[in-house]
């Protein structure tokens, strides 16, 4: 079974705007890029992943080991996925795993567990810490359901999947669940020492010390 990974990437110039009270514009750019690097690194170490695709606008820089699908504009997460599905390399995969670029604590083992015994026809969902958003979505085949990312996407994905196919699984996974959107998320992340590029960036720039006081 061929499984491709798809990571929609927001333009770094406007990424993580909700962190504006605690990080400068340049810090937000660098932090978002560090998180993306952590996600890509974990994915690339995972066996049975065919290709890793980043989807974004012309400002998106490729990461080693990845392939870039370039949109003309950042129109949104679901739009980026629909655009990427026009690429035959993705459309012809047996399954796709959609991941956000802001879950730096994700591990290769978590990804491996998430894709193990992927059904030929089914959906797997990993929610965020609040059990409202979706932080990993495995679709077999890639067009199994139309993605519903946004507010309450976990519920919307689950409802749609249960209407469309009989094989629907929800998998809770701590590293996958830990996305960083708000200052509170960032503070929680700073309190969780990790060997990630994201934590290293925050520590080197004095942000860990500042937030934890």
What does this entry look like structurally?
There is one protein chain. By secondary structure, the protein is α/β, with parallel strands linked by helices. The termini are far apart. The chain has one domain (3-179): Spore Coat Polysaccharide Biosynthesis Protein SpsA, Chain A (Alpha-Beta Complex), CATH 3.90.550. Strands 3-2-1-4-6-5-7 form a 7-stranded mixed sheet, sandwiched between helices. The chain has helices spanning 25-44, 77-84, 88-91, 108-115, 153-164, 174-177, 183-190, 197-204, 207-212; strands spanning 3-8, 49-56, 67-70, 95-98, 122-127, 134-140, 168-170. Helix 1 (25-44) runs antiparallel to helix 8.
First and last CA, distance? 49 Å
Into which percent range does the helicity of residues fall? 25-40%
CATH C-level name: Alpha Beta
- Note the run of SSEs as H and E: EHEEHHEHEEHEHHHH
Structural class: alpha/beta
CATH topology: Spore Coat Polysaccharide Biosynthesis Protein SpsA, Chain A
Q: Describe the strand arrangement of the main beta sheet, using strand numbers.
A: 3-2-1-4-6-5-7
How large, in whole angstroms, is the Cα Rg? 16 Å
| Main pleated sheet | 7 strands, mixed
CATH superfamily: Spore Coat Polysaccharide Biosynthesis Protein SpsA, Chain A
The number of E-state strands comes to: 7
| DSSP helical segment count | 9
CATH architectural grouping: Alpha-Beta Complex
Overall pLDDT confidence: 95
**Beta-strand percentage?**
15-25%
Task: Describe the oligomeric state of these chains in a short phrase.
Answer: single chain
